[in-house]
Amino acid sequence: MRSYTRLFFWLTLCGLSSPALSQSPAVENAVFWEISANGLSKPSYLFGTFHLKGSTYVDSLTQVMDKFKSSGTVVGELLFDSTMTMKMMTASIMKDTTLDMLLSREHFQQTASWLKELSGYDLKMFNKMNPMMVEILITSTLQQKYFPAPANDRPMDLYFQQRAKTEGKKMVGLESFDEQINALYHQFSYKRQADMLMDLVLEKDRAKSDVVNMNRYYREGNLTELESMMTRQVFSEKETDVLVNDRNRNWMKQLPGLMKEQPTFIAVGALHLAGEKGLVALLRKAGYVVKPVRML
């Protein structure tokens, strides 16, 4: 099984999005952008990541890697370190309940059967894990089944940071681990997470096709279709703000200063770029010229 660190990248926003995105004016179809003007002596670059694709894919994107190499600062959603796996494990463990208590006997068995079919693992091994992590585990296993990655492949977010460290670049995380976990886990009750897990399990065929389509749309840079797919995830306005909009606004407090200091390469989940509350629109409102760039 892939490490829990690998699963964490899925959680950081390709799997979780918002119906509110589709109600906003669409930005152009691209996941790679140049940011210029508004006092910048040199352009910076914004790259929307897909957390289930890795270093092998990124290395094939010549324009992306050229701009990465020419940047002095590399920015991610958060900085990864050797403690991340243990932190993730700790955060995913439920208190005072278990999966077989949250789910009906029938739903537990349906989930267990599918997980066994996909991975060979027994759901009882993950009985104390919160439902969202089980959902991520299943989705990640689907990704590996249909789009197998080499054994040495690394999640692209981690790869950018490892290369930045090797090349002596400045590295900045836009939020802390606790801030991200509060947004992505703690705002959802265990019951809410269990309902979302069963939405996935009870629509297995759709889940499989979604993984295939998501990979295709991402390769095409088709942000519109990615947004459209994600509208199936039904979140309240408050949940949407915590998951996406509030984080984007907080990030915008940091990005101008970083870009003014030196050319910056910003790598965050692709769906943070979309809509009128996405980073592309927010950067434009702040006075920057933001235009799509070919990845190859």
Characterize the structure shown.
The protein has 296 residues and is of the alpha/beta class. It has one domain (4-292). 52% of the residues lie in helices and 10% in strands. The chain has a six-stranded mixed beta sheet with strand order 4-3-5-2-1-6, with helices on both faces. The longest helix has 17 residues, at 204-220. The chain is globular, with a radius of gyration of 19 Å. The two termini are 32 Å apart.
Average pLDDT confidence is 88
Number of helices: 15
Give the N-terminus to C-terminus distance in angstroms.
32 Å
* Strand coverage percent: 5-15%
Largest sheet: 6 strands, mixed
In which order are the strands of the major sheet placed? Answer: 4-3-5-2-1-6
Give, in order, the helices and strands.
HEEHHEHHHHHEHHHHHHEHE
Structural class: alpha/beta
Instruction: Identify the overall geometry.
Output: globular
The number of domains: 1
Q: Percent helix among the residues?
A: 40-55%
Strand element count: 6
Write down the oligomeric state.
single chain
Low-confidence stretches: 1-24
Supply Rg. 19 Å
Keywords:
296 residues, 15 helices, 52% helix, alpha/beta, 6-stranded mixed β-sheet
Q: TL;DR?
A:
This protein has 296 residues and is an alpha/beta fold. The chain has helices at 4-11, 55-59, 62-70, 84-92, 99-102, 105-119, 131-146, 156-166, 177-186, 190-201, 204-220, 223-230, 237-252, 255-261, 279-285; strands at 32-36, 44-49, 73-76, 170-173, 264-269, 289-292.
